[in-house]
Amino acid sequence: MADLRLLLLSNSTNAGEPYLGYSIGEIGRFLGSDDLAPLFIPYAAEMVSYDDYEAIAAGPFASVGQTLTSVHHAADPVVAVAAARAIVIGGGNSFRLLRQLQQQRILGPIGDVVRRGAPYVGWSAGSNVACPTIRTTNDMPIVEPAGFAALAFVPIQINPHYVSNVIPGHAGETRDGRIAEFLHANPDQVVIGLREGTMLRVEGARATIVGARPARVFRHDSAPVEIEPGSDLYQIVRSAPRG
Amino acid sequence: MADLRLLLLSNSTNAGEPYLGYSIGEIGRFLGSDDLAPLFIPYAAEMVSYDDYEAIAAGPFASVGQTLTSVHHAADPVVAVAAARAIVIGGGNSFRLLRQLQQQRILGPIGDVVRRGAPYVGWSAGSNVACPTIRTTNDMPIVEPAGFAALAFVPIQINPHYVSNVIPGHAGETRDGRIAEFLHANPDQVVIGLREGTMLRVEGARATIVGARPARVFRHDSAPVEIEPGSDLYQIVRSAPRG
Predict the structure, then answer these.
(1) Domains identified in chain B, total number
(2) What is the domain range of residue A81?
(3) Which residues pair with residue B193 across a beta bridge?
(4) Of the residues A53, A222, B148, B181, which has the fewest C-beta atoms closer than 10 A?
(5) What stretches in chain B show pLDDT beneath 50?
(6) How far off is chain A from B137, nearest CA to CA, in Å?
(7) Which residues of B touch A148 (CB under 8 A)?
């Protein structure tokens, strides 16, 4: 097994910026100067067509010398995944994405090529499915997947679009409340709240926060901890006392 | 089959009010002057014990002459449900609630007693499970139920805690965006956004919004419609043009 290489983004795009605006520079550095012709997985998209989603994502990738092609053009998605030199999974709805990955039978093949060293880029739902399960998604369960287990590239659960603000006067639970519920039900898990505009870059045993804001790490019965950009998340998670 | 009698609340409690404060008067009128000794289903609770949840809910019910007893005291939950003269399902996490209903094998028995005429009161997750599925919940999928199908007492999907406000500067999708995604994936469905402080009272073929604010009805490829309190939701849904 080669070293895992992952770039997991909280979100594609910050409010008011062009698509992948904050992240495409880092994506370019992560993928390197050779065009790896990354295979794009558009299955999270519910409200746009796969053709349109491919066109939206391909522009920024072209600007860093990477030719994105969507798997939905492939006669056999399993063959396309097995031949891919890089995998890119876009955001949308995590339940829809996972169900499509299951139905197209490419969860296992994506796991194989990434574990053999193909770099993986995901944003939002594409970061959720890099985790052991999609149980820390923010999405509505608009369709029913055959189980919540996902790619398990990282041993932690990412909460993308992490935000601690609340809507004033609203009694529905907050994001922190949802994460606390998850950890109460799953006390052995670690959740990392990835704020918008930030990402987690994994290279082998090292996992680094990239971006202008810290990430927030949540564990059961412990106070949350802020992890500054550049810090090694895995080391901090491993060394932190359990509460 | 008797007429269905349901009181489905958006939320237990408005911000800053006592538990069930806005709703207990309506609950009392709905259940009537006889003490039906309603059976309380506390399974949505993740962060409080069943004993504590029962105590929290029992107070307001006692104030309207109803003696609430939680199913978790019963030696056999199936027997307790079959003997119940009223069912009350409290809020919490919808995925946890549905999984517990499945594991305790009381989904079918609750359906039976309510379809024979026992009144049903639910709030938040307890309103989600009264729908055909829990696919319009706002909750995080902290645990994995064996499928999303629920009690199907109503032919519509409720979105509880419905709110159209957004957090400024946040790029994550809005509530309206989530509901639009659901309807795009499930174009034959109708979603009713129940704002906090409002409820849906169903008596046979009549479904009325109760509370100080309208409900918002969403259908695929139609503009949302506001339904004023007192209006018959079913009649409006049936008569509205599609598309």
Answers:
(1) 1
(2) 5-239
(3) B159, B216
(4) A222
(5) 243
(6) 7
(7) 141, 144
Q: Would you state the pLDDT for residue A233?
A: 87
Per-residue 3-state assignment (H helix, E strand, C coil) for A165-221: CCCCCCCCCCHHHHHHHHHHHCCCCEEEEEECCEEEEEECCEEEEEECCCEEEEECC
Q: Flag if B148 and A137 touch (Cβ within 8 Å).
A: no
Kindly state whether B137 is in contact with chain A, defined as any CB-CB distance less than 8 angstroms. Answer: yes
What DSSP assignment string belongs to B173-221?
A: PPHHHHHHHHHHHSTT-EEEEEETTEEEEEETTEEEEEESS-EEEEETT
Name A6's bridge partners. Answer: A120, A202
Whether this model's pTM surpasses 0.80: yes
Give the active site residue among B35, B161, B220, B231: B161
Which CATH number fits the domain that encloses residue B91?
3.40.50.880
Q: Which residue of A has its CA nearest to B137?
A: A140
Concerning whether B161 is annotated as a catalytic residue, the answer is yes
Query: Which residues in A lie closer than 8 A to residue B166 (C-beta atoms)?
Result: 167
How many percent of chain B have pLDDT more than 90? Answer: 84
Which amino acid does the sequence have at B151?
A: L
Main-chain phi, psi angles of A211, to 5 degrees:
135, -175
Partners of residue B121 on adjacent β-strands: B7, B88
Q: What are phi and psi of B217, to 5 degrees?
A: -105, 130
Over chain A (243 residues), what is each successive 10-residue block's mean pLDDT?
91 92 97 98 97 98 98 98 98 98 98 97 98 97 98 96 76 84 96 95 94 94 92 79 53
A-chain CB neighbours of B136 within 8 Å are 140
Of the partner residues A134, A167, A185, the one whose CB lies closest to the CB of residue B167: A167
Could you tell me the two tokens for B56?
A: 């929290």
Helix/strand/coil (H, E, C) string of A76-136?
CHHHHHHCCCCEEECCCCHHHHHHHHHHCCCHHHHHHHHHCCCCEEEECHHHHCCCCECCC
Helix, strand or coil, per DSSP, at residue A155: coil
Contact flag A137-B140 (C-beta cutoff 8 Å): yes
Distance from CA of A18 to the nearest CA of B (A): 12
A136: Cα within 13 Å, side-chain hemisphere: 36
Model pLDDT, residue A238: 74
Is A242 within 8 Å of chain B by CB? Answer: no
Say what the pLDDT of residue A174 is.
83
Does the structure's ipTM exceed the value 0.95?
no
Query: Residue A226 pairs with which residues in a beta bridge?
Result: A216
